[in-house]
Structure formats: C-alpha cells, structure tokens
C-alpha cells in the first residue's frame, strides 16, 4: 500500500533555505572581534577538541605542584655530603644537569619517579611532602 502526500495539504509546506554566505562571514568576523568564538579542532575520529583549553586552564588558577624549599635543601645538602657535583648526580640518574638544578632551586614540578631516583642515588630515607 503506497500513500502519497498531497502537496496542497496545509500540514506539509515546502521550505527552501538559502544561506547568504557573505552575511554569515560578516557575523563570524564580528563575533571574532568581540571574542565570542570558540576555536575547535576535529581529530581523526571526529571528536571536537577545544584549542583554547590550555588558556582556559591557566586563567582558572590551577598550578602544578612544585618541590618545596625544604625538599630542595635536603637534596642539595645530601649531594654536597656525598661530594658530588650536579653534573655527576645527573649522570648517575641519567637526566640533564638542568633537572638537578631545578630540583635544588625549588623550581621543578614534582615527578615521583625522578624524586625516588634522586633519593636512591643520595641514600636519602624520606623527603617531607608539602
């Protein structure tokens, strides 16, 4: 049984949408100037990723946990007691000397794996956490 829809029926209207590309481009440019747009990027599997996520995270005030000055002084003192330079300690645990420098100056972001290597190399029993 086939049913045909009568086009003169008031329930079924034909709708033709014409998109004015120039008008939409102008609206987009205006929105960009006002800062009302969100940059998105499609991945291979079709998910949308917000490109400005890093910027959004920074403005929220979230910070990485950095090593405390107490911890850095313990590391520095233990290294000096073993009479090692930063370069020698870096060679022992296979990292760059800049990493050791950051840990001793309190600028390093805490990496538990690296912290345990330093503790093992310097025979430090415990390092107090923040």
Class per helix and strand makeup: mainly alpha
Low-confidence stretches: none
Amount of beta strand:
under 5%
Shape estimate: rod-shaped
The number of E-state strands comes to: 2
Structural features, described:
The chain is mostly helical and 130 residues long. It has six helices and two strands, in the order αββααααα. Strands 1-2 form a two-stranded antiparallel sheet. A hairpin with a 5-residue loop joins β1 (40-42) and β2 (48-50). The mean pLDDT is 75.
Note the topology.
Elements: H1 21-34, E1 40-42, E2 48-50, H2 53-59, H3 69-81, H4 86-93, H5 97-105, H6 112-122
Antiparallel strand pairs: 1-2
What is the structure about, briefly put?
The protein has 130 residues and is mostly helical. It has helices at residues 21-34, 53-59, 69-81, 86-93, 97-105, 112-122; strands at residues 40-42, 48-50. Helix 4 crosses helix 5 (97-105).
Give descriptors for this structure.
130 residues, mainly alpha, 434 Repressor (Amino-terminal Domain), 48% helix, rod-shaped
